[in-house]
Amino acid sequence: MTRLAPLALLGLLATPAAALDLTDMTDAERKAFRDEVRAYLLDNPEVIMEAVAVLEQRNAADQVTNDLDLVKGNAAEIFEDGYSWVGGNPEGDVTVVEFLDYRCGYCRKAFQEVQQLIEADGNIRFIVKELPILGPESLAMSRFAVATKQVAGDEAYGMLHDALMEYKGPTDEAGLSRLADSLGIDAAPIVAHIEDPAVDAEIRKTHDLASKLKINGTPTFVFGDQMIRGYVPLQNMQEIVTDQREG
């Protein structure tokens, strides 16, 4: 059987579906064409990897575009929900939002780097979104943190948040109370408030927002108008912040 030259075959493969209608071929022609395509791909398997790479690039570009639209469409809830803790420089020119779970290994890995980013830059507004998704222990830690914010205020929450990001002790009320007391935070009123509906309502709102943003893992960051799904090293975070300022 005479084989198509590679360029001719690629031309056929690139032909719009409407122009290359296999149903117009005879059975023999259709079999010959399929055999030729198969033979070419077996002789040139790197073409498959090239096609996969192109597809991944297109999917990544589509994801970026979709995420820009999601951030724009939910900006008020992301940046000004009225309940999420705001740290760093509240008047900063770039806002960084992190959806996190205290038991998430990559959240913990990113913690020190996020701190370094905020402290070294000095002009970043940082928002924490409590998104416990890793089971009952994660939920217990978030509920204790949110109750602390609602009862003892932002300063106490900030201290407890930092401690929880590195905490390896028990996550029952006794263990978390000891952690709070070690930070000089009175745990008794926090424990008394933990069952208040306002605590669960705040966490539920963040879960609802995460659903709208199609977030299914932590950490997830929003840098200005850009959403980053997953862990980001410090240098990359710095580059993203610079791009936000220049954009």
Report the end-to-end length measured between terminal Cα atoms.
Answer: 57 Å
Top CATH class of the largest domain: Alpha Beta
Q: How much helix, percentage-wise, in residues?
A: 55-70%
Structural classification: alpha+beta
In the CATH hierarchy, the third-tier topology of the largest domain is known as Glutaredoxin
Low-confidence stretches: 1-15
Could you give a short account of the major beta sheet? 5 strands, mixed
What's the total count of β strands?
Answer: 5
Return the average pLDDT rounded to an integer.
Answer: 89
* CATH homologous superfamily designation of the largest domain: Glutaredoxin
Order of helices and strands: HHHHEEHEHHHHHEEH
Protein model, in words:
It contains eleven helices and five strands; from the N terminus they run H-H-H-H-E-E-H-E-H-H-H-H-H-E-E-H. Helix 6 (136-152) packs antiparallel against helix 7, helix 6 packs across helix 10 (197-212) and helix 8 (173-182) packs antiparallel against helix 9 (187-193). The protein has a five-stranded mixed sheet, with helices on both faces. It is elongated, with a radius of gyration of 26 Å. With 247 residues, the chain is of the alpha+beta class. Helix 5 links the parallel strand 2 and strand 3. It is 60% helix and 11% strand. The chain has two domains: 6-73, no CATH class; 84-246, Glutaredoxin, CATH 3.40.30.10.
Give the secondary structure arrangement, pairings included.
Elements: H1 6-13, H2 27-43, H3 46-73, H4 75-79, E1 85-88, E2 94-100, H5 105-121, E3 124-130, H6 136-152, H7 154-164, H8 173-182, H9 187-193, H10 197-212, E4 220-223, E5 226-229, H11 234-246
Helix pairs in contact: 6-7, 6-9, 6-10, 8-9
